Amino acid sequence: xxxxxxxxxxxxxxxxxxxxxxxxxxxxxxxxxxxxxxxxxxxxxxxxxxxxxxxxxxxxxxxxxxxxxxxxxxxxxxxxxxxxxxxxxxxxxxxxxxxxxxxxxxxxxxxxxxxxxxxxxxxxxxxxxxxxxxxxxxxxxxxxxxxxxxxxxxxxxxxxxxxxxxxxxxxxxxxxxxxxxxxxxxxxxxxxxxxxxxxxxxxxxxxxxxxxxxxxxxxxxxxxxxxxxxxxxxxxxxxxxxxxxxxxxxxxxxxxxxxxxxxxxxxxxxxxxxxxxxxxxxxxxxxxxxxxxxxxxxxxxxxxxxxxxxxxxxxxxxxxxxxxxxxxxxxxxxxxxxxxxxxxxxxxxxxxxxxxxxxxxxxxxxxxxxxxxxxxxxxxxxxxxxxxxxxxxxxxxxxxxxxxxxxxxxxxxxxxxxxxxxxxxxxxxxxxxxxxxxxxxxxxxxxxxxxxxxxxx
Length: 457
Prior knowledge:
The radius of gyration is 23 Å and the shape is globular. Helix 5 (111-140) packs across helix 14 (347-360), helix 9 (225-240) packs antiparallel against helix 16 (378-408) and helix 15 (362-376) packs across helix 16. The chain has helices spanning 3-10, 17-47, 52-79, 82-105, 111-140, 145-173, 176-196, 214-222, 225-240, 244-255, 260-280, 290-309, 313-340, 347-360, 362-376, 378-408, 412-415, 439-445, 449-456. By secondary structure, it is mainly α.
């Protein structure tokens, strides 16, 4: 395959006008958000005499609503127009950013001002995140969803590198208020993109929203082992393994005896690895297998263990680069397996649960990791996280083997009339992406012959 063909395949979803507009708007908005996070943390530390407790309070205020309200946000995404929800959410985020800018520009900011703004941002994000994740499939359709999702991860990680770097320069030259104000303006990018979209070109199923609220979504997932297993794996790894905001600063300071510049290098190494993985997964077509998810999770656990054992800074940079790569491969594989295996009427709630276990556990995970690191050091924190993640992968792999073995032992009469393209090894992987699957399919196409005979009688 020529380089031109590879490039066209990597950027296939950008040829869709609606997604192209959305990507450009998001790149501006997410870069502004990372700039604001950097400025906000710097301001909190300056106001509180470098208090880690104050910084933790602001972080908890921002992420706790995601933990508590994301499932409700997913229900709203399934029930209402996702594009209109995103317009309203980004408008509110812009207003909150303006409020924070006004407080900072007043010259008399207080910690409670920042906590209230962070809490408001968290509440809006509880609705915006699942709506945005489910909206990607409406913009590009199921066939291009893996490519579009990978490109979304690419611009997110690009912004994660560009935002803090730009914020550091701007804070030094013009101060914190300028950075916070620029973040408010950056939301115009997403708002303009959403308003200029052509709703007639969106891929909407036309199906009525599934009945029931959050509980119905949980019942749907409980009946789908192919969705439940990756969700549980993301929950464990998200809680234990994704706490680098706690371990990396202490790794730079206490292990390698360096300062903030080295911390920036360690963070950039992870972001660079994540960006490479995101670009790699743009070539994916179709729903990833369960084995792909497990292999990605296992690679992440091993790389995190290697990072904990790195004897020098250069080795740590390389190990963290591979850790970021494996982390993105796993997260993208789990994301794609969930989205492409979920009926459209449940997709908002399923992605809300993914967001909950992936991001909503941040406050609890950071607290547990922080206590461990305080007692035993940064290396121990990274090592224990990697070991727990590896055990979780091995357990998940054993469960997967047991489930597949159970399917093979089913009577032939139960599996002989499976829908075309569905295999006995994994009855969900053969289903067309974006179609009704799971309990709906099993209740109709997989009904045991004895029950059908009874109903005919």
